[in-house]
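BUG: 3D viewer hangs when loading the predicted structure for this chain

Environment: internal workstation, default settings.
Expected: structure renders.
Actual: progress bar stalls at 90%.

Input used:
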Amino acid sequence: MPSPGYTSPMQPRTTRILQATTSEQLDAARRLFREYASSLGWDLSHSRIAHEMDLLPGSYAPPRGSLMVAYVIDEPAGALGLQPVPEGCRMRGTGAERAGELKRLFVLPEFRLLGIGRELMLRAETEALARGYDSLVLTTSAEMMPLAQHLYDSLGYVETTPYRDDMPWPEIRWMRKDLREQS
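Structure tokens produced before the viewer hung:
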């Protein structure tokens, strides 16, 4: 059995990542985000993510954002959003105004351990650099998303101070990756 965060050397050659722009691609992202929320036990009736899904691509729209959907053959397998850190909740002195924020990384269970999450994260780095961000930030929960922790660590994300003031949950892990070293 592979260890958590394992990336198979036999990644499917039929995996492709598209920026969701068509109604079909946006619907695929919505379905994946619903599955993401459901997997975490979130109530979608009155939540921030439900509102976010209604407005897709919303803050993930170009030119500052990107909504990426990974497909295996023609089947939506995973999604990831890149957005600017919302201006109204940026914490001063954290560099949040120059950072892209990653949200909602999710890969369907049947497609996990194929490297799709890693591919989405690497594509997000490319997208972030093209949009002028100097770093990427994200929040995560080790308890709720254990596989993701290994992925973030393996890609060079490090713990950082909170960069938003609207997420008061103490179990959140705040992470950052400096992209200037790569460019």
